[in-house]
Design brief:
By secondary structure, this protein is an all-alpha fold. The protein has 14 helices and no strands. The radius of gyration is 29 Å and the shape is elongated. It starts with a helix and ends in an 8-residue tail after the last helix.
């Protein structure tokens, strides 16, 4: 009958769609949960799932933005009367738009002010004005690190880059998800280093595009989520292996058996083929994206706000005691050693 024939043709396709949609290895969280469940199954025990390692959003903007010292209005008016280009720079700052400058434009203004004030000095004969200009230049130089901080970590766009609302870093993505971010971040780090080193002619024309990409991307937040997930589930899996190691050996007299064959098969088909590549991808993205972001913050540590400092030590740094990335390294090492000890009971240790 035609209707039955069409049903027979449709059923395999529907089943395929269902199976594809339920593939636990297509996303990080179900993949890691599945890993713990399968490991518990082959070790003939019950899986245990811990709460994920705590992570937090980047501090709110009002906690990240630093207050910029201002020249007093009288000095600005005084300087604006002089006929060099500084008059135009000061006029822009006093305009309606200048009073609500975005952090990047404020940094540009501070740099323009210093450059134009320096240009003015050789043309000035009035001693009082020379003293005012020199004082203004010194004040602007002293506060420049604050303007640089606000133009990097004080911008709204960085909140999108670090949002935790977009899940974990993708499993087996097409191409390199962080490649454009990395290229632009390298350029930004070089510019910040140059500015802090005294090169006030460092171009910043690219910086707006960096902020736009931060607004559109969320990979740093995904990597933080993935670190939390990997630490927790690897520790869960390690606890299962340690529990097995503390009981009767997997193999008597070091001779493989049916259970050890199943365990070894799971080790290669799931841990080696699925989990390790994902850990490697997260570690690689950490090295190329998180570490340069950490460097961007660390080189500005002299002005880093206290609330940001604690967030930085947890989510970006690799060295702090509470560092998420240090914990991930330790969780990976413990898990690898536990697998080696377990398989060694059967003479199956990898690389042996």
């Amino acid at each position: 009958m035609p209707g039955i024939r069409w049903i027979r043709l449709l059923v395999p396709g529907v089943a395929l769609v269902i199976l594809t949609g339920c593939n636990p290895f297509s996303e990080a969280r179900p993949m890691m949960d599945e890993y713990v469940e399968r490991l518990a199954r082959v070790l003939e025990t019950e899986p245990r799932f811990s709460d994920l390692q705590p992570v937090s959003q980047i501090p709110r903007r009002r906690e990240r933005v630093l207050s910029m010292p201002e020249l007093d209005i009288g000095m600005l008016d005084f300087l604006s009367l002089y006929g060099c280009k500084l008059q135009r720079v000061v006029g822009e700052k006093n305009s309606v738009m200048g009073r609500v400058m975005q952090p990047l434009n404020r940094l540009r203004y501070e740099l323009n002010f210093i450059r134009e004030a320096r240009e003015c000095l050789p043309e000035v004969e009035d001693e009082e004005l020379i003293e005012a200009l020199e004082s203004a230049i010194e004040g602007k130089r002293d506060s420049l690190p604050i303007a640089i901080w606000n133009a990097t970590w004080g911008v709204e766009e960085v909140e999108s880059l670090f949002t935790l609302a977009k899940g974990e870093y993708p499993v087996a993505p097409e191409g390199n998800p962080v490649s454009d971010l990395v290229i632009e971040l390298k350029q930004l780090n070089e510019a910040v280093s140059a500015l802090l080193g005294g090169d006030l002619d460092t171009p910043l024309v690219f910086a707006g595009a960096v902020h736009q990409r931060w607004q559109a991307e969320y990979r740093a937040g995904q990597l933080i989520n993935s670190a939390s997930l990997l630490i927790t589930r690897l520790n869960d899996a390690t606890a299962l292996i340690r529990q097995k190691l503390e009981g009767p050996p997997l193999c008597l007299n070091g001779k493989p058996n049916d259970q050890s064959d199943i365990v070894q098969g799971m080790f290669f088909s799931v841990y080696i083929e699925k989990i390790q590549p994902y850990m490697g991808a997260v570690q690689q993205a950490r090295a190329t994206l998180i570490e340069p972001l950490a460097a961007l913050a660390e080189k500005q540590s002299s002005v880093m706000p206290p609330g940001f400092d604690s967030w930085f030590l947890r989510h970006l740094s690799r060295t702090g005691e509470k560092s998420l990335w240090r914990q991930l390294d330790e969780a990976m090492m413990r898990h690898t050693r536990s697998w080696q000890e377990l398989l060694e009971q059967c003479g199956l240790r990898p690389g042996a």
